[in-house]
């Protein structure tokens, strides 16, 4: 068990976070660089670079998204912990090998008495964190080239996509909980995420 700034992280939770981070990084790297295992071993240096890029973008975006849920939940007196979905992680890796990337790595589960507003704030914390990360990645993207610029570009795109995707008001996604709490805040975050993603793609010549 690890305790940081009043937040308790359980041993199983730390394991699940680490496994999900690595699995997502590997799956996204495989998606970016389709290859057989033999080719991966033959070009380990190149694949390692792509894997590092994935860990620093998709991995960090996922990790901080989930930690934001947990931190806000704990602030509201909840017992909260991340639990990985190992079946979905295996499916993400298998899908990436087939050229498809889809990941539902797990979720932060919390329990205790809570209001609709508090539940909505816990949910919206994840997408808002991704939007904040996109801003953090934007500055080095504008200033640097090379690997730093490449990581930053991917960091902006990935986090804007994660923010927009998670605000879809469907199923277990954050958007459903946020809309049930406050439609105005739901609309604001969703429009900001989608608008920023489209604006970045168009503004920097990626096209749609």
UniProtKB/TrEMBL annotation:
UniProt entry keywords in alphabetical sequence: Hydrolase, Membrane, Metalloprotease, Protease, Transmembrane, Transmembrane helix
InterPro entries: Metallopeptidase_M50B
Transmembrane segments: 18-35, 47-68, 88-109, 121-148, 154-173, 185-206
Coiled coil: none
UniProt-recorded Gene Ontology molecular function terms: metallopeptidase activity
Listed name of the protein: Metalloprotease
GO biological process per UniProt: proteolysis
């Amino acid at each position: 068990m690890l305790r940081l700034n009043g937040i308790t992280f359980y041993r199983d939770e730390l394991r699940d976070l680490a496994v999900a981070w690595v699995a997502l990084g590997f799956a996204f790297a495989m998606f970016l660089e389709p290859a057989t295992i033999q080719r991966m071993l033959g070009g380990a240096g190149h694949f390692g670079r792509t894997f590092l890029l994935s860990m620093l973008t998709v991995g960090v975006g996922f990790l901080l998204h989930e930690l934001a849920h947990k931190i806000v939940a704990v602030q509201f007196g909840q017992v909260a912990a991340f639990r990985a979905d190992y079946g979905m992680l295996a499916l993400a890796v298998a899908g990436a090998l087939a050229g498809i990337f889809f990941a539902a790595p797990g979720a932060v589960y919390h329990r205790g008495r809570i209001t609709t507003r508090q539940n909505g704030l816990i949910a919206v914390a994840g997408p808002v964190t991704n939007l904040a990360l996109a801003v953090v990645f934007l500055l080095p993207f504008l200033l640097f080239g090379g690997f730093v610029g490449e990581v930053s570009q991917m960091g902006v795109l990935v986090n804007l996509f994660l923010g927009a995707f998670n605000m879809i008001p469907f199923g277990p996604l954050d958007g459903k909980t946020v809309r049930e709490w406050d439609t105005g805040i739901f609309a604001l975050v969703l429009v900001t995420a989608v608008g920023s993603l489209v604006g970045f793609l168009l503004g920097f010549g990626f096209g749609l």
